[in-house]
Amino acid sequence: SPGMSYIILAIAFVFNSISMAAALKAFNKERGDMPFFKAVTQSKDPSIFIALLGDIGDLLGVAVAFLGVYLGRLFHNHYYDAIASMIIGLVLIAISLLLVRESKSLLMGETVSRRTIRKIITIMEADEAIVKVKQHFSTYLAPEEVLLQLIAVFKDGLTTEQITGAIERITAVIKTEFPKIKQLFIEPVAG
Prior knowledge:
The protein is an alpha+beta fold.
């Protein structure tokens, strides 16, 4: 009966709204003043935006299902219900594609931003023992954990103790400035 369909959809809407409110609260806490889609694309913790986008998709699906049942009953035509089902499928596909795009980079090893790397290189090259940074490699291991390898040219004539001291000094500065960098490797190479 259509009445039972409306009751079930209303219950689903209430529970999904509660779930979305909790996910939105956590997401807003993480994103701060950043715009919504920018926060989704820059987040390193997919669990929050996956829950939020899933809930948004659920609410859209419930609204479309309600509309399909209502229009089908109003016009005595079951095609509206079928069309609503197809629209729900398209909404779920669109959200899935967005989630795949945003989660793929994290699964494949996303690097830190260019701006962060430039700051790190500036810190490193400001040290008296460093001539230049030749190469750098970075990847997120977790939302709050970065692995960073820096390959640097040290000044000629430094002893092993001086190079080791410079590496320890630079490591301390970088880890203090960028607490997400949990593993840092500095490799000295010839110029």
